[in-house]
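If your schedule permits, I should be very grateful for your opinion on a structural question. What I wish to show you is a protein chain and, alongside it, a tokenised description of its three-dimensional fold. Would you kindly read the sequence against the tokens and tell me how you understand this chain to fold? Here, with my thanks, is the record as I have it:

===
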Amino acid sequence: MTFVVTENCIKCKYTDCVEVCPVDCFYEGPNMLVIDPDECIDCALCEPECPAEAIFSEDELPAEQEQYLELNADLAAKWPNITEKKDPPPDAEEWDGVKGKHQYLER
């Protein structure tokens, strides 16, 4: 099983989760993070650290977010690994909780 970064991370990209990950399975895109499902050890440390509540266990993934399971795997293979916390975008708080952000995903 794995954890999945979902839509609410788009344009928020808080990296608090990266700092607690013991296996460095987070990958960074222009405006979102993803988790490599092959590297995730299901430790659950990242989920409570996400200020945007954008990380879910695979078995608790909301139905409307299921596409992000495959998206995480696909983008983790393309994006660079991130292992240290960075500052979020300056407008992250404004985007937190906004619905329908998938259209803003930058690959």
User: Anything to note?
Assistant: The chain is about 20% helix and 10% strand. Residues 3-82 form a domain with the Alpha-Beta Plaits fold (CATH 3.30.70.20).
